[in-house]
């Protein structure tokens, strides 16, 4: 296990380097002016030249990349925002990522737990009313986007019932509505995956053998069905862990939450090169770590899966 983890960490470093280089070069192929918004302020030529020198925009791309990598590996510095002079990318990530993580992680935990539970209930009650209800909810959860569900939640629980705040951040209840809006789609996804997986596993020969040996119904479900049926659901977990930061931008916007997703999307539209590279490296790192965690969970959930060099 240790050798496998060390090997994967080595691959993660190489992959992260490739992501950084690719993102860096792709940014410079996009037409546009990184100092475009500053140019709207009618900057004098000398001031513009100073900004270009400060951010290294007057240097060839390979030199800009070398300086970025040097600052990153020596000081952990991801650069300074062009649109917000003086704002360090690293400081922005440290400040805003925990906010996105609190909403995203809580919604992911709730969504995965309820989704798996619903999927099991639907599969064990196939072609009966619990199955029909859960399938209907799953279809609604997949088809109704979060930016449609969020205003409906605000209208019902904030305007009509006056139970929860409609927007803002800071109070204990301010994250409840965003969490519900984000978790609804996750519930639907895992309910569908788990239902199909349980139905496939429950008809397997080893399940019939366990029943023939006298294992109780609860024991069959707990020891044999769940551990095997949950593996396909773990596969999609890695991408969703990293997506809790980048994928919550719309919800953060609707509920006026100062999360990291706002800076990610805005940096792309503003061509804020340092912020684009910094957030991309951060999200890439999260995705790679999440995939490693999922692979390790495979071995924990199903001992037949061995993590080795082979």
From TrEMBL:
Indicate where this protein resides in the cell.
Cell membrane
Q: What is its main location?
A: membrane
One Gene Ontology term from the biological process aspect of the record: transmembrane transport
User: Any idea where the ABC transmembrane type-1 domain is?
Assistant: 97-298
Q: Name one GO cellular component term.
A: plasma membrane
Q: Which InterPro entries match?
A: BPD_transp_1_N, MetI-like, MetI-like_sf
Coiled-coil region:
none
Q: Where are the transmembrane segments?
A: 9-28, 103-125, 132-153, 173-191, 229-255, 275-301
Q: Give the membrane topology, semicolon-separated if more than one.
A: Multi-pass membrane protein
Keywords from the UniProt entry? Cell membrane, Membrane, Transmembrane, Transmembrane helix, Transport
Q: Which family does it belong to?
A: Belongs to the binding-protein-dependent transport system permease family.
- The name on file for this protein is ABC transporter permease
Could you tell me which species this protein originates from?
Citroniella saccharovorans
């Amino acid at each position: 296990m240790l050798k496998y983890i060390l090997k994967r960490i080595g691959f993660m470093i190489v992959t992260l380097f490739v992501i950084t280089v690719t993102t860096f070069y792709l940014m410079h192929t996009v037409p546009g002016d990184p100092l475009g918004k500053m140019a709207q302020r009618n900057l004098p030529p000398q001031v513009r030249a100073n900004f270009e020198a400060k951010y290294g925009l007057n240097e060839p791309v390979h030199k800009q990349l070398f300086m970025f990598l040097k600052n990153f590996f020596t000081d952990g510095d991801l650069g300074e925002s062009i649109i917000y002079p003086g704002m360090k990318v690293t400081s922005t990530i440290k400040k805003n990522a925990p906010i996105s993580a609190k909403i995203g992680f809580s919604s992911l935990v709730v969504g995965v737990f309820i989704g798996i539970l619903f999927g099991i209930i639907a599969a064990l009650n196939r072609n009966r009313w619990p199955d029909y209800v859960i399938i209907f909810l799953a279809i609604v959860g997949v088809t109704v986007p979060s930016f449609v569900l969020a205003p409906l939640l605000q209208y019902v629980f904030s305007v009509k019932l006056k139970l929860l705040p409609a927007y803002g951040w800071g109070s204990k209840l301010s994250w409840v509505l965003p969490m519900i809006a984000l978790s609804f789609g996750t519930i639907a996804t895992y309910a569908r995956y788990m239902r199909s997986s349980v139905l496939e596993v429950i008809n397997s020969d080893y399940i019939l053998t366990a029943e023939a040996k006298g294992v109780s119904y609860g024991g069959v479900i707990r020891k044999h069905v769940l551990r095997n049926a949950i593996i396909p659901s773990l596969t999609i977990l890695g991408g969703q862990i990293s997506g809790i930061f980048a994928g919550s931008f719309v919800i953060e916007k609707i509920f006026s939450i100062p999360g990291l997703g706002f800076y990610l999307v805005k940096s792309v539209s503003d061509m804020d090169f340092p912020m684009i590279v910094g957030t991309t490296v951060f999200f890439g790192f999260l995705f790679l770590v999440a995939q490693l965690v999922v692979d390790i969970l495979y071995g924990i959930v199903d001992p037949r899966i061995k993590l080795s060099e082979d």
